[in-house]
Amino acid sequence: MMKGKLERKRSGPPHLVPLSRQAVSILRELYFLTGPTGYVFPSRKAGVPISDGTINAALRTLGYSEQEMTGHGFRATARTLVRERLGCDKEIVERHLAHGSDEEWGNAYDRAQFIEQRTKMAQEWADYLDRLAIGLVDGASIDAARRAPSLVATISDEGTSESISI
C-alpha cells in the first residue's frame, strides 16, 4: 500500500535523499556514462527511468525467484535492518522512504524532513553494507556469527523464566 497518492508524489514537494559517501563515489564513477542530466538508470524509452520490472528481470537472471527477492523487497530489507541492526528511529526511516506520518494529522501539519538524522542514517547503512561485504557482522566475522546461537527463547514455568539458545 502506498503512503500517499501517486499524483501527490509526482506534483508535490521534492523528496530529498541524503547520500552516503559510498553512494556519491558510485555516482561519480557513473558520471561518464550518464552525463550531467537525465536518469542514472534510464529505460530504453527516452525520458523515463528503468521500471521495477527491469530490476526484477535482472534478479531472475541472477537466479533469484520471485519468492526470494523483488526490487521492492530491497526497501523492506533495508527498512528492517536499519531498524534492527542500526537502531534508527522509525519516524526517520519512514521519512527516508518517502512515507508520510502515521499520526492522525501528521501529513497535514508535520513537514519535518530530518535531513541531518537521515544523512547520518544513510552513512551508517552504507558502512554496515561495507562491513557485510568484507565478512563482518556487528563486529564479528560471518563465520563466527553463523556459529553463534540463532534463537533465544524465554520459557516461563509458573512464574519463573529460563533463557535457552537453540
From TrEMBL:
Provide the Tyr recombinase domain boundaries.
9-113
Q: One Pfam family of this protein, by short name?
A: Phage_integrase
Q: Which residues form a coiled coil?
A: none
Query: What is the protein's species of origin?
Result: Caballeronia udeis
Keyword terms of this UniProt record: DNA integration, DNA recombination
InterPro entries hit by this protein: DNA_brk_join_enz, Integrase-like_cat_sf, Integrase_catalytic, Phage_Integrase
User: Which Gene Ontology terms cover its molecular function?
Assistant: DNA binding
What is this protein's name? Answer: Integrase
UniProt family annotation: Belongs to the 'phage' integrase family.
Give one GO biological process term.
DNA recombination
Record Gene3D superfamilies: Intergrase catalytic core
